[in-house]
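Chain A, query sequence.
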Amino acid sequence: MTVVTINQPFWIKQAVFKNRLVKSAMSEAMADKNHLPTDKLCTLYEAWAKGGSGLVITGNVMVDAKALGEPGNVVLDSADHLAEFQTWAEAGTKHNTQLWMQINHPGKQVIKGVAEEAVAPSAVPFEPALQRFFPMCRALEESEILEIIRKFARTAELAKQAGFTGIQIHAAHGYLISQFLSPRHNERTDQWGGPIENRFRFLREIYTAAREKTGPDFPIGVKINSSDFMKAGFSEEESRYVIGELDRLGVDLIEISGGTYERPEMTGKGVRASTAEREAYFLEYAEALKQHADVPLIVTGGFRTLHGMNEALQKHATDFIGLARPLAVYPDYANQLLLGRASDFSIKSIKTGIGFIDSKGILELTWYAQQLHRLGSGGRTKPSFSPLLSLGLTVWKNGKGVLEQRRA
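Chain A, predicted structure.
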């Protein structure tokens, strides 16, 4: 029997993945003023394609120009500028790399000043400490829900036309689909709220509409939380139900994550020592899920050693290894792993020594974003870049407020 390692290929429909390594989505914030891909974005993705991952997943591409999560979001909602997206796809699919576009709607997770309003399943505010950074939201009308579903399908169709080899529907991390799934944020009493069967309807209809537009052979994945890790939030039991339904519907690949920006478990915050020892944050959940679902899985978050990655594959806890922050610093990290040359990777804590800044963890996000911009400019990353210099550059460029308004 073949021993599965990160070097083994994988097939999904007509797509061939040259290995089991996935560059998971990270926010690049590199769109131009018209929300279109830039040369910097193409350069960044060409570097990742050269870096060796079998699958590269883009950061958020929004389905509606009126619903931006943060400055610099790319939007694909019409065919007017498809050439720019084709250039991006050409760069990211070099070296036989699969390139999937992550498509998303932020719902009420829109930073103040970025969008005119925030919408959600229900008019439920965030916790007070977080709400001050977001406009108050209003509940969507049913006609608006149906229109957003059409927008997701349209973006999926356009991504295929542009040359992306698949899409990933973002249903995690507290964005709009995640808000619909969560009983904490979805208090509707119509067909879109209440029991999990109804709260799942929004995601189900998005997938069905996207599949209709892209055809049976185009790969469609979903990123979903194992749990929101919040009282009265989306639970593991509900997550298992949703993934089972997605498997039944024919979704091609599930990426397991967890948490929201109220409870950022996807960053490793609050991870138990036993979990850290096993490396991947959501591996235990994935192992249990594998007993009941046949859909291929990506587990992202926490993998830092070749041994840990191969062990997870050999135990059939996951089919792919998702990596994010290591590839923001070392874009060729996948190649080094595949060649057996990579040393164990540890994520250092980005600390300035200023308690107020360090307690929020915001600088860590901007530090990694600055590394991505260096790659996009054709330069090299600076793993030893001073957090204090990073802080100064961030404030100089964007003002003090950005330290409280940045996200992954």
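The chain has two domains: 17-347, 351-408. Confidence is low (pLDDT under 50) at residues 264-278, 404-408.
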